Amino acid sequence: MAVADGPAVDMRYVNRLPGALRRALTAGRWLPIIGAGISATATTEDLRRPPGWAKLGEDLTEDLLAPVGAGPIDAVSAYADTYGRPQLVERLTELLLVNDLAPGPVHRAFAQLPFDMVITTNIDFLLERAYEAQRRPCAPLLGESQLSLRRDSEVTHLLKFHGDLRHPDQLVVTEDDYDGFLRRHPLLATCLSWWLLTREPVFFGYSLDDADMREIFTLLRERLGRMTRPAWAILPTDPHAEATRFQRRGLKPIVLDPDPNADRATVLTRFFTELRSMWEAEIAPQLQVRTDAATAELRRPAIAPQLALFVAARPLLALYRDFIFPTIPRNTGLLALGIDDIRAKDPAMTPMAIDMALSKAAVVVYDAGHGNPLPRDYVASRRPPIPALVDVTDLPPHDPTPDPLPGTVVRPAEMSTWPHTFVPHLHQQVTATRPAVSPPDLSAALEHLRATKQYQALLLTDLALLEDQLRRFLADDQPSTSAAPDRLPTSIPTSGGRMEQLSTYFGADFELVIHAVRMRHSLIQDLHVKAEEIQAAAEALQEVVQHRLGLPLP
């Protein structure tokens, strides 16, 4: 398993975002609005692309007996009048290559961004397929009746503002559909007004001639007036110098690449990738869970991770906390945490927080029992190349002869048998699944943090490695069934009654270790610590780690 984060991503495009817009992303206040320009980046297997809005109108006009108006909507409306709505839907499906298109790099990179709400005026299914390919839970919303349903924080909700080709009665493509659309759908207009009032609308894939964008801006002006938040238009390139025209229309354009010949799809793919990296980096300091040690695991680089993350339904997690969590540190060397412990300051940030926890845990225990909030495919897709995933399945009370898949742990329905069967088997499987890290790789990873002056990350990682060694010592030195109160702790506290035992264990390094633990607590609590103090403690502690773990010098 890789012990260090990959090379830093060049933030050439994300750095073009204003600071306030970056902070809005971290706070979960972006409202992405996706237009036809994003669909235009997808291709079929034989490299065909869907037509643009203007070309679509031309293609439909060829099927008409008489010329129509100048705009694409005129052509769509005339086609519906001539051949009827069912045939219009069939022809649009054919021309837009709906059944042949596959999500490309742009869609895949966008689907890695765990927005809780995304709006699109596209009538195809590329976004849904992209989320499906990423195994990310996605719930399309069509029509006003679905707006009142409860929305889970773990799911991306995709509001298909103009319906889609599978729901012809809700499709908005002709003049009659557009005329009075918002008046005919007051609940939809009210919900959209609220999101536009409380979030930062960010448009992707729209042109100045796009009727969909004009409609949304009409809503902005009519409903919100001077209370309208700034609306941003992300332009991958600007070959026709349209940025100033966007500005006159009331949008704040951001041109990502000044080269007018740059490939739009390449620019957008890179931008979304950078956005993901920036989001992770800026949200990590805002995460806090039950203990300083567990919180540090979410904030530091994934070097020899220490978390055993349990993903299960809430009622089951309560049982795991009673029966399993207290035994995990001494028997596996890991820190136990439930997926419901992962929360951010703002609920809109929760999807990214869960993403980060799944990717940073050493081992994920997935219980397939009823009510698990996350699909297993999604959990597996967030794991590193070596997934380190332990599956747990329930045993029906009247089926004493289970035949589980290899590596699966069976959870009996009779809880009285857990301490003698389920718990030891789970310990064994977690321990066997935990990836190993070679001492040379570990030493090189620590030196990389020092050389790149990531002193806070170095401090947190040094402490994590020392606490890991402490837990391994306990597992080797003590009977696993004992829980005597005078034992060494499984995480180093800042104070308390076990300092004498810790002093004996750490010897001459004790004062330095406790000083670093207290510094970690201050950092977790967002208290100010001088940079030079962090550097001095991290570098001194690195020498302790090198010595106590027997790591080779880099």
What is the compact description of this entry?
Pfam families: SIR2_2. The protein is of the alpha/beta class and 554 residues long.
Supply the key terms.
alpha/beta, five-stranded parallel β-sheet, 24 helices, 12 strands, elongated
Description:
- There is one protein chain.
- The chain is of the alpha/beta class and 554 residues long.
- Helix content is 46%, strand content 10%.
- The strands form two sheets. It has a seven-stranded parallel β-sheet with strand order 3-4-2-1-5-6-7.
- The radius of gyration is 27 Å and the shape is elongated.
- InterPro entries: DHS-like_NAD/FAD-binding_dom (IPR029035).
- Residues 477-496 are annotated as: Disordered.
Regions with pLDDT < 50 over 5+ consecutive residues? 1-8, 479-486
Task: List the total number of helices.
Answer: 24
Number of strands: 12
Strands across the major sheet, in which order? 3-4-2-1-5-6-7
C-alpha geometry: elongated
Mean pLDDT: 86
Roughly how many Å is the radius of gyration? 27 Å
Distance between the termini: 19 Å
Q: Approximately how much helix is present in the residues?
A: 40-55%
Strand fraction equals 5-15%
Structural class: alpha/beta
Largest sheet: 7 strands, parallel
